[in-house]
Amino acid sequence: MPKAQQTVLEIDLNALTHNHAYLKSKLKPQTKFLGVVKAFGYGSDSCEVANHLQELGVDYFAVAYINEGVALRGSGITKPILVLHPQPINFKTLIDHCLEPSIYSPTVLEKFITKTAQEGQTDYPIHIKFNTGLNRLGFSENQLEYIHSKVINAKSVKIKSIFSHMAASEDLNEKEFTKAQITSFELISKHFTILFGYTPMLHMCNTSGILNYPEAHFDMVRSGIGLYGFGNSEKEDNNFKPIATLKSVISQIHNIEKGETVGYNRAYKSDEHLKTATIPIGHADGIGRQYGNGKGFVTVNGKQAPIIGNVCMDMIMVNVTDIDCDEGDEVVVFGTHPSAAEFAKTANTISYEIITAISQRIKRVIIK
Fold this sequence. Notes:
Elements: E1 8-12, H1 13-24, E2 32-36, H2 38-43, H3 46-56, E3 60-63, H4 66-74, E4 81-83, H5 91-96, E5 100-103, H6 106-118, E6 124-129, H7 144-151, E7 157-163, H8 175-196, E8 201-203, H9 207-212, E9 220-223, H10 234-237, E10 244-249, E11 252-256, E12 261-262, E13 268-269, E14 274-279, E15 297-300, E16 303-308, E17 316-319, E18 330-334, H11 340-345, H12 351-357, E19 363-367
Parallel strand pairs: 1-19, 2-3, 2-9, 3-4, 4-5, 5-6, 6-7, 7-8
Antiparallel strand pairs: 1-10, 10-18, 11-14, 12-13, 14-17, 15-16, 15-18, 16-17
């Protein structure tokens, strides 16, 4: 790889291929695979990622919001796209782009039936979300009769799938809770079949569900974080390859005398002579202030350089006293080693937060 000459986020599509293949190896051949590409593809590049996954034969995509689905359609995605949290104000846009809504409440169901009827639709595919314990979005089981009463006479919509979401599938101490969620979802699907006279597609597993609960793979599984290279446990992380590497460069090196301070609010006070490097990345790029003052670190020429002082909007300063380095040298913030999960841990957060926080002003470089 050529060395970085500015701050870039490298997206390795070969790693994406590897992660997809590993996840698929856990499934029965007939189980469909949905790739979650919300939040700019977990901070990478949703259109590049989705098009690569479409080439790999992924069956479905999911996004959080309607505008994310519109962007995918504009980039050449022809596979079905599930919108997990559609807002009624954008329903016409959703229909115009053949996106499929998650219907999670009576309000949303009634508004979507009204809108599809106005637009002259018949059998528009909808996905009914059931709450089995995450308590975020979804109908409860006792609302099935209500759903049936609304949908049975509505010619404009057709329930294509019912689904739920696991709350703690990565935590093996919560097996009892997760198994109760699975049982609850199975009861809902049986009740649905009795009421409606057919069984829609069923899906419940996220990445950790795929890995830990094969009995709950049903007709389709949904993977987000796994595709991007994280298995939600140290053991499983070894089976994945992070697709994103955040790199930058050293802009300037300073020699700091004993008693001098570094950065805003003079947050770092030097008690000895040291050498610092200034790097063009800061909290406007997604490296939050929580990473400052010795918590986070970057890698310069294979060695760890702790972030000193407060993270600035566009810059960080790191301690390179014991590192042989020059202005213009490449700096790795996270990638394979250390991974985003290891970087995030220094500020007591998770890989999801740091990778999705990487600003759109950072140039994405796609490696095929």
